[in-house]
Write a structure and sequence with these properties.
The chain is α/β, with parallel strands linked by helices. The chain is built from 17 helices and eleven strands. It is globular. Helix 4 links the parallel strand 2 and strand 3. It has an eleven-stranded mixed beta sheet, with helices on both faces. Helix 3 packs across helix 14, helix 5 crosses helix 7 and helix 8 crosses helix 15.
Amino acid sequence: MMGKDNSRAFKKAVITGTRFIQKHNPLLKKANSDIVNISNSVEVIVAVDIMGGDYAPLEIIKGSVRAAREFGIKVQLVGPPDRISRELGKYNLEGLSIQIVEANEFISMEDKDPVKSIRSRNNNTSIVVATNQVASGQAHAVVSAGSTGAAAAAAFFYLGRISGIERPGIAALIPTSKGQMVLIDAGANAESTPLRMAQHAIMGSLFAAKILNLELPRVGLLNIGEEPGKGNQLTKDAFMLLNQIQSINFVGNVEGRTLAEHYCDVLVSDGFVGNIFLKTLEGAIKMSFQMLYQELTQSIDLKIGAAICKPGFKKLKGDRLNPAKYGGAVLLGVNGVVVIAHGNSNDFAIMNAIKLAADTARSGIINEIKENLKKADLPNLSTVAFNKMKEFSPFNRSAPLEDEENE
């Protein structure tokens, strides 16, 4: 986790950078009006950072061409024009709407301080230019498979936070035995607060309703036990607050091992635990397939049985449990649609990330978040909830522990 000194330094850097960009970047002033109004447009335009990712720009451009061809999405390829043009020459682009937007610099995955890089460069990096396409109303969404920190910082500085949101959260779609589930926060914030988790719960619920077509998504809190008193102080406080929010269908604590039962549609967590949960899930799926392969190749009989079951295995691995199918995760809480794809995304993953960006832009979720945050009145609600907690909860911070009383 981030230490107190580093946390203060990060906060100071964010505030300073935001003020600087607000002063020198007029596009931020347009973001609130332009981005909200274009979300219902029939033809969605997605700006793609072609320099982000382990396999950039080849796989990024290939995936962008596939998205334009298979889904009819208008794509803006943001990066060095000569490299883009050279790569596009390999494809038949007849009937496709693909535009080149110049950006001659980029932020690498190895950059240790992407926030500083976003602030110190001349704003000609591919992620900044792509984000500015959304801020200026020239695109509906941005997709990047590059540094998560750079994408989040660019969104924070150039699109701005939605009023009432302390910190944006990453909403990731994950597989369960009965469908998909939204995990939020999947890694945007290493440290969180009950209020931020409540904001993420509201945004995650709206996202699930729009993208998964659910009428009343069930919201659960990722914890070490199902009982209300389980967890550390953060999850106990978050439980109290989530239980007070009328606009969400809160079903209580949910353990990671119950993922197969699909007890909830939205799983709320702080970004540190959420990111570990997501990566552990990815690793467990990969390990399961490796172990299955090892067992099914032990003998001729098993190999014959595996051949008979091959269509089912192929569908399971290539469809239901394939991370590339989900494309990426959405950064919720900023004034624009931002999709962050996995760093090792191939063309199939990029194609799906662009589709996710287009679907999210069409959903009008930003307006929904703004309206619901006003109704929730979270600052006042959190005060009431925590006052009740101090009166009735055995987990009150100020209450002496049993050991302390015995002393």
